[in-house]
Amino acid sequence: MSSQARILVLEDDSIMLELLCEALEGAGYEARGAGRPELAVEMSSKIPFDMVISDIRMAGPTDGLGAIAGIKKFQPNVKVVMITGYASDDCPRRAIELQVDDYVHKPFRVPAMLDVVRRTLHRRSGILAPLLGLRNLLTAPLRMMGQSNSKRVAQLVVLLEQEKQKVLQGFFVALRSKAISKSAALDTWDQLERLEQMSARLTEQPTEAAVQSVGAAYRKIYERIGYYEKTGHVASATPRQPGQVSRPGFGVVIDKVQAGLIGLEELVQLLLVRQEPRRQAELSPPVRELYRGLTG
User: Fold this and answer.
1) Of the candidates 121, 145, 163, which is a domain's last residue?
2) pTM score, two decimals?
3) 246 shares its domain with 154
4) What pLDDT is recorded for position 282?
5) What sign does the CA torsion over 109, 110, 115, 117 have?
6) Using one digit for the tens of pLDDT, what is the confidence trace for 188-209?
7) Are 139 and 280 within one domain?
8) Is the pLDDT of residue 174 over 90?
9) What is the four-CA torsion angle of 154, 272, 195, 96, rounded to 10 degrees?
10) Taking the alpha carbons of 177, 181, 186, 190 in that order, is the dihedral positive or negative?
11) Max CA-CA distance within the chain?
């Protein structure tokens, strides 16, 4: 992503709007400001943006998330960072449903916000679809299938990647918005690790039913995240089983995510390396230390 990325800032506080636009311009981005949701939607219908940074709470009938819903009708793939100082209880859920990329609480330091912007804009396109590697692993098994079946399974794998991206992004935003408890987050992580194992086994039996089964399991996790967010559910503190992540170690990971010290890319890397420990060398030193904490 070029440093000349065009960013739309939606903020009805004129002082904060000017501060963010100046900071973004100073960092080499092209910033456009909008003080009203309606103006932001209108601008997005005419001007392509790489990112939208929006406050949630707005004066008037439409809040920032409502504006994002309108903007995404014109630019469905635009990256979105929400900021909030106070918001209603359903905002994290709505943000997850809109598949925003990050969720930042006020007050925040400008350098920290610029880190979020840089990390989100430069996120590798494949990092949210770790199953991309599955396509290569399935090449040989699919050759042994009939052409129509092979094509159908390949199409289902693409849909599975999209489903997984939705879940991982939703989980990250749930953590960033502090919408779910640490124990509920740990329960979700355990489910994600089980699905990584299920995905790996697809190479043994790459059938339509098998791929659809994994996709259905991801959809259940997505629904479960919404349930946790809505109910404030705190999972029981049952003893950890051999091979599961350490409860204290995972608590440190959550703290780092909520503090903005690691992003979605690093979180996904931890998930992948948990299944393939030989890939530890790919981790940066800080993330490798978190990995060691997860293994207890």
Assistant:
1) 121
2) 0.88
3) yes
4) 87
5) positive
6) 999 999 998 888 888 777 788 8
7) yes
8) yes
9) -90
10) negative
11) 63
- The whole-angstrom separation of Cα 195 and Cα 201 is 10
- Cα distance between residue 29 and residue 63, in whole Å: 25
Give yes or no for a contact between 249 and 255, defined as CB atoms under 8 angstroms apart. no
Give residues with Cβ within 8 angstroms of 70, minimum separation 6: 37, 40, 41, 44, 62
Same domain as 96, residue 181 = no
Number of structural domains (the chain) is 2
Q: What is the pLDDT of residue 233?
A: 66
Residue 271, domain member (yes or no): yes
Cα distance between residue 160 and residue 158, in whole Å:
5
Number of continuous H segments (helices) and E segments (strands) in the chain = 12, 5
- The tokens for 260 are 């903005």
- How far apart, in whole angstroms, are the C-alpha atoms of residue 173 and residue 104? 9
Do 111 and 204 share a domain, yes or no?
no
Which residues have a Cβ under 8 Å from the Cβ of 89 and sit 6 or more positions away? Answer: none
Are 235 and 182 in the same domain? yes
Please report where in the chains the tokens 């992580």 appear, as a residue.
Answer: 189
Shared domain for 80 and 179, answered yes or no, is: no
**188: containing domain:** 132-294
pLDDT in tens, 67-104: 999 999 999 999 999 999 875 678 999 999 999 999 99
